Amino acid sequence: MEIERKFTIKELPDNLETYPCHLIEQAYLNTEPVIRIRKEDTSYYLTYKGSGMLAREEYNLPLNETSYYHLLKKADGRVITKKRYVIPLTKYQPENPDDLSIELDVFEGELAPLIIAEIEFPTKEMAEAFVKPDFFLEDVTFDPRYHNSNLSKKP
Q1: Phi first, then psi: what are they for 116, rounded to 5°?
Q2: Which domain holds residue 37?
Q3: Model confidence over 34-50: pLDDT tens digits?
């Protein structure tokens, strides 16, 4: 189960380059239901996501490089590329559990300068009670335009 909130942000955090960063490329074989392939650094995955906005089923299966590039040729829409910075939430909210992180996605290519912050939660109750840090702007969790599967669609 994936339980996640999404936000636009006012500005990039200071010292962004000091946080772990992953290079992500992903494409969609289907958007309803979501079937996605992803290359994250040197790892490859096939992901199925059920319906829902705040909470939904999610299953990840490992792929090898050959399978990923074979499936990439079959993808619809644009290939999404982004840098994902992983920032401990405790930097902004020391009262939150140590294992919560802000995943800050800085989109590249056609989707630049879009930046989305995501936080995954262990429970729906935690997600619903979450108070955003000051540098977060709009909560777009329930706005389908900000789901990557919809961002993959052209134009």
Answers
A1: -130, 135
A2: 2-151
A3: 999 999 999 999 999 99
Q: How confident is the model at residue 99 (pLDDT cuts 50, 70, 90)?
A: confident
Distance CA 138, CA 132 (A): 9
CATH of the domain at 87: 2.40.320.10
What is the total count of domains within the chain?
1
At 68 the pLDDT is 98
Distance between CA atoms of residues 98 and 143, nearest Å = 28
Query: Which one of 28, 44, 68, 85 is the catalytic residue?
Result: 28
- Assess contact for 129 and 119: CB atoms under 8 A: no
Nearest Cα to Cα of residue 135 among 105, 99, 92:
92
For residue 154, pLDDT beyond 90: no
CA 64 to chain centre: 21
Among this protein's residues, is 28 annotated catalytic? Answer: yes
Q: What letters, b where the CB count within 10 A reaches 16 and e where it falls short, cover 98-128?
A: eebbbbbbbbbeebeeebbbbbbbeeeebbe
Threshold 0.90, pTM exceeds: yes
